[in-house]
Amino acid sequence: MKLKRNRVRKVAEFSITVNSALAGFSHGVKPKFLEIFTTFILLGPAGWYRYLRDSRIYERVSARLKARLAQHPKYDHDNRQNLIK
Question: Which contacts (CB < 8 Å, 24+ apart) does range 10-14 have?
Answer without folding.
Answer: 10/43, 10/47, 11/43, 11/47, 11/50, 11/51, 11/54, 14/39, 14/40, 14/43, 14/47, 14/51
